[in-house]
Amino acid sequence: MVLPEGAIARGKLAQAQICGARVIAVQGSFDDALRLVRELVERRPVAMLNSINPYRLEGQKTAAFEVVEQLGRTPDWLALPVGNGGNITAYWKGFGELGVAPRLLAGQAAGAAPLLTGVPVANPDTVATAIRIGNPARLVEALAALDQSGGGVRAIPDSGILDAYRLLAQEEGVFCEPASAASVAALIEAARDGLVPAGATVVCVLTGHGLKDPDTAGQEGAEILRCPPEVVRLEQLAFGAEPALV
Fold first, then answer.
1. What does pTM read for this prediction?
2. Are 141 and 56 in contact (CB under 8 A)?
3. Mapping DSSP to helix (H, G, I), strand (E, B) and coil, where does residue 217 land?
4. Residue range(s) of every CATH 3.40.50.1100 domain in the chain
């Protein structure tokens, strides 16, 4: 497993480590790591499992089939986070094979939004580590999917991504990683600015569980209140009021 040093959420790294993977941290960005791995597969008989691999897209496209099947019709919009561009490319491929064409809404972090400008970002920066990518491998295909679907891109500041992250957990009971919340954050902004009209049927794709990034959950969640082993103090902390008379 090759990754950028210090730029991968702890939960994702732990999964690879417990499986006994040889983990190599490249002293550079995601784009540096991807460039090196692309060179490596030319030198050694190994397969790349990144979204560059066409078989990966063939698997990912089936998510589009599931959306239409479970919804019972084609949504008006499909919103999803975009980092390397593989998912949005695959969804559009799947919808195309079904002969349907929902509009696509790409959620990117403001500090890593190459879809917005159409050119790579030299130093991507965002709390949403899964989409902290400045030079997507599928940039051309992702832009084509947005153009062909008549969709749009919203680049959300980290504060907006984290607001959506907390909203999903506290209002919907859905604990996702911050990058996943970019789809909902993009929808909130697109609804606010009128791109997505009221009453539209929108499917938001959440790509990763919150335990992939437990550090952010600890930082952004409610504080832990310390309590001595006394029921009166426990009552005060739990209910935020004076203890009841017994």
1. 0.84
2. no
3. helix
4. 2-43, 54-220
